[in-house]
Amino acid sequence: MKAEKVILTSFTDPLCTWCWGMEPTMRKLETHFGSQIEIRYVMGGMVKDINEIASQNQKDIDSINKEIEEHWIEATSRHGMPVKGFGFSLFSKEKPSTYPQNIAYKAALLTDSSKARRFLHRLREASAADYLITSDKTVLEQIARESGLDTCTFLRYYTDDTAEKEFRKDLEYTAKMEVGGFPTTFISYESREEVIFGYSSYDRYVRAIERVSARKVRPSAGNFVTDESKLQFISELGSMALAEIREAFDYNSDKDTEEWIMKMEQLNRLNIRKAGNSYIVTTYDSPQLCDMSTGKCL
């Protein structure tokens, strides 16, 4: 009889800074549990209209953008994922919502479910580490291209109502499950379930997974010990930050992690790209990234 998987249903938004901060934990869960778990993302639509928030708080949008930037900078000191740290201007009267990014993820999922995880990761990265206006269709098309998606199919789902209908289903499900903040993760196995609210550690996830599965599902170390296996994992995701690599591959410190990264760069196996207060690495067989603010491609 085939063993059941533990299902992790993560309620999220591509612009949630604590969801970006959870990426190292997600990577470690993937490398230590492998096919024993399945991570599913539900788009929760964090900001419907920033103009309404500005009006309610009697503030202009520029002030709210500044407050968000300050919150993201404070958050990165805890979670360690790259945040650019200056010039945040994602919200405007013309682009007041995170709904476009949520819909874009559903379009990616419809286009090629095997690459949707890669798309969501790059979408978070572009928003937090590069401060790209990821609600812009041109930016989303570029991210889809970088993620290996067929852009014609992606744009068709994004611009007609197909992806938006799927997103509306996610909103309904988020409301039904009474999720009031992101990230929120429901961990289920057969008839048992636990909920983890907010930014949490890998160890907390392990304990929850072991409880709901009655210890039938447990982590294993040593799955990614060779350089080739690590490079392959990075290639499949498209890019990884220092904090993700440290957690995914069990390095003891940033120093140990950087030593491996620099060794791989010297061997022409990894590219290093400055990103916010840290950097992003890609393998040479990953799609190279174009900075749409400067027009330069790396």
- Helical coverage, percent range: 40-55%
Number of helices: 13
Extract low-pLDDT stretches: 292-298
Measured by DSSP, the beta-strand proportion falls in: 5-15%
How do the SSEs run, as a string of H and E?
A: EHHEHHHHHHHEEHHEHHEEEE
Strand order of the largest sheet: 2-1-3-4
Give me the secondary-structure category.
alpha+beta
Describe the main β-sheet briefly: 4 strands, mixed
Amino- and carboxy-terminal Cα gap: 48 Å
The oligomeric state is: single chain
What radius of gyration results from the CA coordinates? Answer: 19 Å
Q: Rough shape? A: globular
Number of strands: 9
Mean pLDDT comes to: 94
Tell me about this structure.
With 298 residues, the chain is of the alpha+beta class. The protein contains 13 helices and 9 strands. It has helices at 17-21, 23-33, 50-56, 61-79, 99-111, 113-128, 137-146, 151-159, 162-176, 202-212, 227-237, 242-248, 254-266, and strands spanning 6-12, 37-43, 184-189, 192-197, 240-241, 270-275, 278-283, 290-291, 296-297. The protein has a 4-stranded mixed β-sheet, with helices on both faces. A 3-stranded antiparallel β-sheet has the order 5-7-6. Strands 8-9 form a two-stranded antiparallel ribbon. The radius of gyration is 19 Å and the shape is globular. It starts with 5 loop residues before the first strand and ends with a strand. Mean pLDDT is 94; it is low at 292-298.
